[in-house]
Amino acid sequence: MKANKKIYLILIVLLCTALSCGKSNNPVDEPVTNGFDKTAMLTNYADNLIIPGYTDLQQKLQLLTPAVNTFLTAPTTLNQQAMLQVFKTAYLSFEKVSFTQFGPAETILYTNFMNTLPATTNDNSDLQKIEANISSGSYNLSQNITVNQQGFPALDYLLFSANTVQQFSAANSANRKKYVQDILARMQDLTDNVLSSWKNSYRAQFIANTKSDAGSPIGYMVNQFAYEMDQLKGPRIGWPFGKQSGGLIFENKCEGYYSKTSLALAIENLSSLKAYYIAAGSGKSFSAYLTALGKDQLNQSILTYFDNAINKLKAVPDPLSASLTNNKTAVDAAYKEIQILLTVLKTDLASALSVRITYVDNDGD
Amino acid sequence: MKNRYLKSSVLLAFTIIGFSSCKKDNDEVIEPYTVPATYDFTAANYDASTNRVKMMLELDTYMKTATTVKLDGTKTTNLFNNTNNPFNNAALNTSGVKLSDKTTDAAQFKGNIDLLVSNSQSNDVLASKGTAGYLLRSATSKIVVGADGFEYGQVALKGMMGGLFFKQAMDILSAVPADATIALQQQHWDEAFGYLAIPTDYTPEKDYTVAPLNALVFPAKPALWGGYLAERGKNINAGQVIWDAFRTGRAAIGAKDTKVRDQAITDIQMMWEKLAANAAYAYMNIPQQSANIGNFGTQFHALSEAHGFIASLKYRVKAKSKLSDADYNTMWNIITTNDAYSLVGETGFTKLKQIATILKTTYSLPE
Prior knowledge:
By secondary structure, chain A is mostly helical. Chain A has 15 helices and two strands.
């Protein structure tokens, strides 16, 4: 009897241990799921996409400064053209890091200060505020309220408007020149800040967290796929196209309107999203993750939808602002593909990876 | 002979003592009882609580018309006090209960409602710092805010959830152990359950926000705090804990299992308080998200909800709460002495982060 009791006790202990092992095993938390190494994926993203992305932008902004200064010193059309090339290169480089709005970028509201896209309404208060800042010479660009008075959109407006050369040639353009330099300096500071945070502390944190809950790197990135698609559907293409204004077009609300870089920026933004999704086919990407989870059909659909949307965007004649009126069919075709890709990323991808979309204001009251 | 009697006496004494101790043990032996899977208890009656929930819902429905209707202060006062047959549901008018008499700090919350009424008179004016009016929350929805940016409909609703429903439930539950009879304990327990506003067949697995359950109406569907068990309580398992504790404690009362009953009281009180904190925490973070920068409607709606949930924490069971008076006062001070524009305009969101840190640390909230 005594021996039996002992055996039962051992069995019970073993059973409890087995049960508790089962209970605490959350497959979503484990670094390796279904043979897929999430740590390797995160490391790949950090070292081969994110940090190089910020590094490249930092360099492109550094190249922009002398080009801008040359123009400010001698505001000629020729210098403006030269500056446009360097500006475009920098803006395209930014589109590659627009996706990584989490971690250090989120903390300092990086994309908000670098590239707040115009609101849809027929309201030019942001431009009015920029002009007011210049007139008064007094402004504080670190205030959250000034996000739409600085960054790439402000440079776009100040440096490439129709009457830019005249404005900077005028006698009292000192404030205007200073404003441009202040904006550019701040863009460099912010970029330096984010890059340095990534290299010094955030990279380790990012790579170590293989969860998918709110606040995790995987959680953030899936949210960002959806968010960037929403930005494409809304501020980048849809809103200027009139989708929220009953067909009333706001071509001057296109990203990069003044520099006529709208399409290039949108294509770069979308191509970068795809690049993040496949990570150069390295096998350490969301694409590979889905396949490892047995969801390759979804993965293939996403790849197809990415290509459809990119191709349809490339088929829109430049500049976008003119095509909104003159080539509605082409813009509409691109818009449709964007909607399809948005849906699949926001619902199917998120659900496949057990990620909750948290950036949408769907508060129930 | 003496020794024999002594031995027997001693033996008898010990036996009596032994039986006495056994008798004590017998008193502590609880008859086995079951905890039902639903809130299924004979003669459970919490009509008064339920009627107050229904009243709050009607008042809130009216308050929410503020974006298109310039609210009538007489009507909101009548709804608050149940005077002049104000409710569409006629049974409420003759129910014999009202919101005002069970609302702690009633003047404060009535004041919030009055402000909403006043702000709604400008519901066609675009709001800005110093000017009441409306703000867009999305392309298709608006909120009405005061000169300070706060959406008083939310401040009032979430505040009253705290000052009436939460406060009453907390006090009633604390008093249950002192109730003289089992029947009284059960009655009071049910009354507290009624303030949670969940149906008798509630489970945390049910999603009342999608078809077909979203077609249900209170009391078949959760309301107020009941709704928040899912909305801001999922990641702390609030629904399961509170639901289990309410049924368990109620069953324990009938079985005179005071130990289990008292544990259930504590579980409910602690988790309900944590739910308020978790909601406040979520609403502190929403305005700071980069996706919401520039969207005052979304940011101020969130801040106003936070305001109400922070107000609710005032009514926590202090003897058991982890939140100190000092920390509570810090949070309350921040949310009531700064306008919404300054709070979201502050570089680095220092004040909002201060509140968020207190909440996260005190209650060990998940991210």
